[in-house]
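> forwarded from #structure-qc
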């Protein structure tokens, strides 16, 4: 059974290649372009079917890394009791370290 199916597929491939070689140049070019488009579409469908897990994992990793960065920024700007050392004027933060006079060079 399997041998018969494989033989039939091989024969169909040989016939398709023979017909392709017998076609004029313009027809052969259009057939090649259509096969290329079909191949690109099939590859896109396969990538979208397989790639959803990768995209989901990357999205989850990016969200986790963003939360870590936010936590690190909050911890570095706090003085231990959870409040930053400085003043907030609206949404502008002026840390106490900016109030120190700068030494001349």
């Amino acid at each position: 059974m399997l041998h018969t199916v494989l033989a039939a597929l091989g024969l169909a491939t040989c016939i398709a290649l023979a017909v392709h070689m017998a076609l004029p140049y313009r027809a052969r070019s259009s057939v090649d372009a259509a096969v290329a488009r079909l191949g690109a579409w099939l590859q896109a469908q396969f990538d979208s079917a397989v790639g959803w897990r990768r995209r989901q994992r990357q999205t989850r990793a990016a969200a986790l890394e963003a939360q870590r960065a936010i936590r690190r920024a909050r911890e570095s700007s706090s003085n231990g009791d959870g409040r930053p050392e400085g003043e907030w004027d609206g949404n502008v933060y002026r840390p106490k370290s900016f109030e120190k006079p700068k030494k001349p060079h």
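QC bot note: The first strand starts at residue 86 and ends at 89. The chain has a mean pLDDT of 85.
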